[in-house]
Amino acid sequence: MDRTHTIALVAALSALLAGAVQAQAVYRIEGPDGRVTFSDRAPKDLSQGAKVSAHEGAQTGADLHANDALPFALRQTATRYPVVLYTGKDCSPCVNGRNLLISRGIPFAERTVTSNEDIEALQGLAGDTSLPVITIGSQRIKGFSDTEWSQYLDAAGYPRTSELPAGYQRSASAPLVVRGTPVVPSNVVPQPEPRQPHARTTAPATPAPGTPNPSNPAGIIF
Q1: Which of 46, 63, 197, 199 is geometrically suited to a Cys-Cys bond with 59, CB 3.0 to 4.6 A?
Q2: pLDDT value for 55
């Protein structure tokens, strides 16, 4: 194998590994007392004998690569505040929520809740099993409300009209929990806490965090 082919192979493998590392997961955590909880963040302390399993969920490598062709500003927003939609079968509000995201050109990942494992994971993540559920960055909203969802999307900085390039294809929906999941190593590195966005400095006077303003009338803080 010549040098050119070797470099190309290394680059391809690096890209695949990067996608795998960036994939987020749903964590099933069983404490020493047998209590089971679910979280979309890796536990910080595994020294007390907790057992942890990782299930593919939230943003996968495929979801992340779907953002590669986005305009710079939209790609930055989608990376900082990724949108994940949790849906189920025969769920009219789920359809309405999906249509809102598509009509606004919001890049999003969709996780379907169909199996008992999916339902258990949703219960752990959202506190109940009602659908739809949407997460926008660190924010989690239960149930569909055109007004509420729009307010949160506006506050995150998503455009109100589609800026998706021609031919853009969003990632396919996937189950919330993938069966046959691997066990997380005991030395898993915890995911960092979401960073608070810096105040915008382009405006003459920036409202204090949580203060309603024309671009964020609900005063939403991420």
Answers
A1: 63
A2: 55
